[in-house]
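So, could you explain this one?
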Amino acid sequence: MAGRADFDIYNVLLGLGRIREQGQVMEAMLNPRFLMRLRRTLLPLPIIDRKREAYDVATLFPAFRSEPIKALQGKRIGMIAGGGSGGCVSLIGVKRAFEEAGIEPAMISSCSGGTLWGSMWAAGLSAEEMAEFSLGWEIEDYLDIQWHKIPGFVASAFKGFTGVAKGAAIQRTFDDRFGNLTVGELPIPLTSIVYDMDRGGVEYFGPETHPELTVGQLVRIAIALPLVMEAVRVNGHLYVDGGVVDLLPSRPLHDDGKIDHAIAVNVMLPPQLQPADLTGWEDRLMGILDAARQAEQGFHVESGRRTRADFEGRFTMIDAADHALLRGPSFFDLFLDRSRWPALIQNGYEQAKLELAKLDAKPTRAAAPKRARAASTAAPKRARAASTAASKTAVKTTSTKTAIKTMASKTAVKTTSTKPAAKAAPTPRAKKPATRSAAG
């Protein structure tokens, strides 16, 4: 109808979400510590901003404890490494828990930061090696802001602009560590979800589709968050982080068709995919902003729930980091502030140990058929036993009834023979005739 306002509730919720994020940005800008970290990241000063001392990885984990998870022994495990900025460093702790459990994924499906640290895992690095590699980075090793190009982008109305950071730094860091190791050569197959900005669709870059990509190239594409880091051109089209569409990509595991157990490492979504109960939000001050954020994540949560349903009884979720740490500016701060990474790694280790231990505390799906077979075998036995018992009871009952009838018959005969004798009059004896004497 002409002149009618086009009310789009989805865009309204997105708009409210932006208002909430702007408020969080303003709050962050009033935090001196955040501003100092931001300044050190964006405008490092040669003398003032000295390089940090290397972290002692030996103190990161407790002594190695071999604790095999029997429920997963001999199983083909598929792992989903979810996205979540710097929070994905917790994947190192998960790796350590896997080492102690004596298990290794047969394949990894990932996105965003999950690809960054998941690629180290897929390349064969141990948890300690992953930690040494990551905790030794300086900001310039993985972030390269293009300050000199920004004025030109603004003057040209952002023509040619796809992101503030170039992304070459992270690719160079991985190339220095892994050389020309390609995706097709990884010891553990790894597939990352990416988004085609040109044609608006999701694709999966892995050993079957793009085996020629180096690990550094794949990582660069996977963390190219729109507007933050430049999109990467592959075969004539620009690609960015696929986590904008799916934070827990599971399609490669479905396509494999041979996964016995799926393990998802969650960083950014609510624990166990269970959002907070916001009942009554409409009556609270600014409650609409909380509802808007929950609605924004709704399709990611629902997608994860469907994956869990598809792998019913064969799905484990590890909440490796507190999702509240990745709200608003904290999402970027967690990627910049590497001093928080050790605590995140340790949290990932503890949460993984907790969830894996639960698998041995409950019966596995493999045990279910055995119980069913045992039950089906026991059922006829119980039926036969019940039938035999019933037969014996019936025989016993019949015998008892027969005995009762026999006793009744005997009693009746006895009674019959006794009653006439009692009623018959005694037969009088014949009197002898009187004998007269001879004299008489």
Q: What stands out?
A: The first helix runs from residue 9 to 29. The chain is about 45% helix and 10% strand.
